[in-house]
Design brief:
The chain has 23 helices and two strands. By secondary structure, it is an all-alpha fold. It has a domain of 183 residues. Strands 1-2 form a two-stranded antiparallel sheet. The chain starts with a helix and ends in a 7-residue tail after the last strand.
Length: 520
């Protein structure tokens, strides 16, 4: 493969830099006119010969150094030089530095290297997994002219781009084009499933999830598809089947905590109140002490009120206020004192990430409580950027440790590019963390209102129970778990199915207690 690349690159060099002396002589007059008009030209020189030989000998690093020097020669076609420099850097695995060369080619406007540069840029963007570069490449590549060398990755990334920009039907069309033999097929089908859910078409989504469950070739994929099937049934309001599949996600699965959370909602919608309490008791066990899940305590208190266990409801609300109120108080203090201080937010993300990875498991020295930071750091967008930062850091370490690069102008250029990209990515993470923290503080206000309303029902319920005892009327509690013919006491506070990413946390709805209970 390396030999083929060398031959291809050498052929490009000979064609574009001039490998035939007679042709160069015949066009001397034309070149002089172009130089006089300050137009870029192609000419033969000893340095070009040297680049050709370096490529032939697979000395791509040395070729990159020479090509970077040629970027200063205004007589050359700089789009051409940038493209070839990008190829040699790409061959060495310096993907991010190479990407900047291909972007330079594209930004120069119409030239014969644009399409090839776009194809290469897309391959690099896909490898790096950074959305801004991916979106830049996808926007520039015409939909009817995808890169032949990366067809399936292009359709996958194009689908993601359409989905991120609200074009769900366009996303479906792109995901459908991915070959069943492609490594992107399974994840592409999962994204297709999510797109159908977003269009509120659970039956189509269910068919995809059931088919992918049969095709899953590892436990992680199988567990994800069990969760997917449960979610499709949930959206279709088939609570019993949703419950069945949520319970099929095993305890040792990465998805088990999320399956438990969603199971509690399915049980609530199916009027299995005592089952809800059992599920929520598991979520509130010490095993989940580092999880930020205040909404589950509200749900638990609502169920206790509905089955007339008022003391338990009151205790649950006290824990809710004491634990999560303390978390939010510290988070709010940080938020108010560090507005716009991106470095501070990046430090918080970094500390929480180290704890999450087990590299700092003894203590968390961040200013924002770890359960809140964990819920922020594990979000999909931040995880993508953190993985990208790791890749760029690795590339920077390799770049700085390469002794052959030091002393050449390309060394400081590459270090500047990589350092700048790291800073941009870290700032993006910090902005996302700041926004997520702001949202959690706002959500806390709404949850407190819900808690106060439930507490009112607790007090009112106790009063009514006491009145019943004084009047001598027995308090007979109905078998609520089997009483399905009644007005349901929870309403959806927001859009029923507000799916906006493949990461499901809190996407099944935010339900509000409506103040109805049946104690007699």
């Amino acid at each position: 493969m390396r030999k083929m690349f060398s031959i291809l690159l050498l052929a490009i060099l000979m064609i574009h830099f001039g490998g035939i002396d007679s042709l160069a002589i015949a066009q001397t007059a034309k070149r002089r006119k172009q130089i006089a008009a300050n137009q870029p030209v192609t000419f033969k020189s000893d340095r070009i010969d040297r680049v050709q030989k370096l490529v032939t000998d697979n000395k791509f690093l040395e070729a990159s150094i020479e090509l970077y020097q040629l970027k200063k020669d205004k007589r050359l076609d700089q789009a051409q030089v940038s493209y070839l420099l990008g190829l040699t850097l790409m061959e060495q695995g310096y993907q991010q530095v190479a990407a900047m060369q291909f972007i330079d080619v594209i930004r120069r406007g119409k030239n014969k290297y644009v399409r090839s540069a776009l194809n290469r840029l897309f391959i690099i963007a896909d490898l790096l997994g950074e959305d801004s570069i991916i979106h830049y490449a996808v926007k520039k590549i015409a939909g009817d002219d995808p890169p032949a060398m990366a067809l399936d990755p292009f359709y996958f990334r194009q689908g993601e781009y359409f989905s991120d920009n609200g074009n769900v039907k366009g996303a479906i069309e792109s995901f459908r084009k991915i070959s069943s033999k492609s490594p992107y097929y399974f994840l592409g089908q999962y994204k297709l499933y999510l797109s159908y859910l977003e269009l509120n078409q659970p039956q189509q989504a269910l068919a995809i999830a059931e088919r992918m469950l049969r095709m899953a070739n590892n436990q992680s994929d199988r567990h994800l598809m069990l969760l997917a099937i449960a979610r499709a049934y949930y959206q279709g309001k088939d609570w019993e089947k949703a419950i069945r599949y949520y319970k099929m996600v095993p305890r040792d699965s990465l998805y088990w905590p999320q399956a438990l959370f969603e199971l509690s909602w399915a049980q609530l919608r199916a009027a299995r109140f005592r089952s809800v309490v059992g599920t929520l008791q598991t979520l509130h066990s010490p095993f989940f002490e580092n999880e930020y899940n205040p909404e589950t305590f509200i749900v638990r208190s609502i169920v206790y009120v509905y089955i007339c266990r008022f003391d338990e409801a009151e205790k649950t609300l006290m824990v809710f206020d004491k634990v999560f109120g303390g978390y939010v108080k510290k988070a709010r203090s940080f938020y108010l004192s560090h507005k716009g201080q991106l470095r501070a937010y990046w430090d918080e993300v970094r500390k929480a990430s180290l704890r999450l990875e087990g590299k700092n498991s003894q203590s968390h020295d961040g200013q924002i409580p770890y359960p809140i930071m964990k819920s922020i750091v594990t979000s999909g967008e931040i995880q993508k950027l953190l993985k990208y930062i790791i890749r760029v850091n690795q590339e920077l370490a390799r770049w700085e440790s390469d002794g052959k690069l030091k002393g050449h102008s390309i060394f400081s250029y590459g270090r500047k590019v990589l350092s700048r990209r790291l800073q941009v990515a870290q700032n993006q993470v910090a902005k996302l963390a700041q926004y997520a923290l702001e949202r959690k503080i706002e959500d806390w206000t709404d949850l407190q209102e819900q808690a106060q309303f439930v507490m009112y029902e607790v007090v009112n319920g106790k009063k009514e129970a006491l009145k019943a005892i004084i009047s001598g009327v027995s308090d007979k509690q109905s078998d609520l778990d089997h009483d399905k013919q009644r007005e349901f006491y929870v309403n959806n506070g927001y859009e029923y199915w507000p799916v906006d990413t493949e990461y499901w946390l809190d996407e099944i709805g935010n339900y509000h207690y409506m103040g109805k209970q049946q104690c007699r």
